[in-house]
Amino acid sequence: MVCRGDGQSIHSLKLLLEIEEKYPVSIEVIEIGDKPICKELVTRKELKYTYYPASLQSYTYYRLSIAEAVSNRPEAFIVMPDTLEDLAAYVLNEVLLGKLQGLLLDAKYRTAYPQSHISIKAIAALGYQPSKPPSEVWSLLSRLERSTPTILYSTVKTLSTLTLKIREKYKTLQTQNNNAP
User: How far is the C-alpha of 103 from the C-alpha of 60, rounded, in Å?
Assistant: First the structure.
């Protein structure tokens, strides 16, 4: 599980722990961000925890930081805390502008986005303090959502399709490289 010091991370971590407590799995929490807000919960549950202090300048930077943190674990299954708006902001503000490096995380590792259809507003309504995308992107998302309510879901679906295609291409290239003389 990856956390980034916000309400989305706490909510996602609690969901993961609630679901996985019935199974014999090993959960490791990596927190990358300004402050380690998940540490207390992780310590109570006696999970392995690593904190990397970092200022999260962009979604791409965050995703590359995660890839670096798990680089010695090629079989890692990464649970991301991103909500519907987080993923839509990532697509609109970075992927569509050509910042594709962050997609390497999804190409190299198995990733899951259990909150990809949950709104930041819903997380806030549950009493968590979510972080919002940059103000100009948040404003754009709000305007788009009012004019076309399904736009955020469509954007996340597009990201999922793009990620799947990149993952397939990455695995094909990896296989070709392994079979090369």
Answer: 8
Check: CB of residue 107 under 8 Å from CB of residue 72: no
Quick check: 104 and 94 in contact, CB under 8 A?
A: no
40-61 pLDDT, tens digit each:
999 999 999 999 998 878 889 9
* Rounded Cα gap, residues 53 and 152, in angstroms: 30
DSSP annotation of 113 reads -
pTM for this predicted structure: 0.78
Angle of CA points 55, 112, 13, to nearest 5°? 65
Task: Identify the CA nearest to 151 among candidates 84, 105, 99, 96.
Answer: 84
Q: How far is CA 116 from CA 17, 90, 123, 159, 169, in A?
A: 18, 12, 12, 11, 23
